[in-house]
Amino acid sequence: MDHRKAARCETPAATGVRYTIATLVNNVVHYEDMLASFEAGGFTEPHCEFIYVDNTGAEQTCAYRGLNKLLNEAKGRYVIFCHQDVRIVDDAIGELDARLAELDEQDPAWALAGNAGGIAAGRLALRITDPHGDDRRIGDLPARVMSLDENFIVMKRDVRIGFSRDLTGYHFYGADICLIADIQGYSAWVIDFHLEHLSGGLKGASFFEAESAFRAKWANALRARWLQTTCSLVNLSGDAVGQLIGRVAETPLARITRRLPGAGGWIKRPA
Description:
By secondary structure, the protein is of the alpha/beta class. The protein has helices at 2-10, 28-40, 63-73, 93-106, 173-183, 205-221, 240-257; strands spanning 19-25, 48-54, 78-82, 86-88, 110-114, 116-120, 123-130, 133-138, 143-145, 147-148, 152-156, 187-190, 195-197, 225-228, 233-236. The protein starts with a helix and ends in a 14-residue tail after the last helix.
């Protein structure tokens, strides 16, 4: 396994690579079957490359660190982050090309696409076969979403975004990358590209630990705050009332804070 797949990583086509398929691998059989599935669907060299993180041994790399590493190595115009247990069903590389071209027309600011995600509270978009059901299609596709399931995520590589440095584990990185994309002005979508995912997902202790860490990180990152720049004091709040109060208070509060004993750098040059 290592020699064959290392060759794939070390000798990608110098130009013209359309898709990089990046995977965390802890089961060789699953990964070999995934490779065969993708290759049968037209994902072949020189237009595609397959790279992976070897998690088959005692030393493990979490999804956040591992996928960032693979992203740095990727040569493709699009990077596909996928689980080792996904399989191409009837859609192939031509269908994925077409779905992404449609996104380019509909929303040139798209950064991420997948086969499952959350639209809003209680609303999902799906195009998948998994243990929960065959050939499931939910939502009017393509559907803009706020999060993507981790089993299959396509990233437009030139958007230059990555996964959080301060999170670890193997859960919630799909939601994490969607939030990062949204903050930078990009969008995420579920597209009509049918894949099979052999796992239905498990919610063990590690899932709830990751959920707690994810919530804490993003609650802090998205908190309302006063932002001091070298020339302005700006109130940031996602709440409309908070924004209004902040705008009213900005100027007088800026004047007060510049006169506090600990303030510095605001002394005007004498006339």
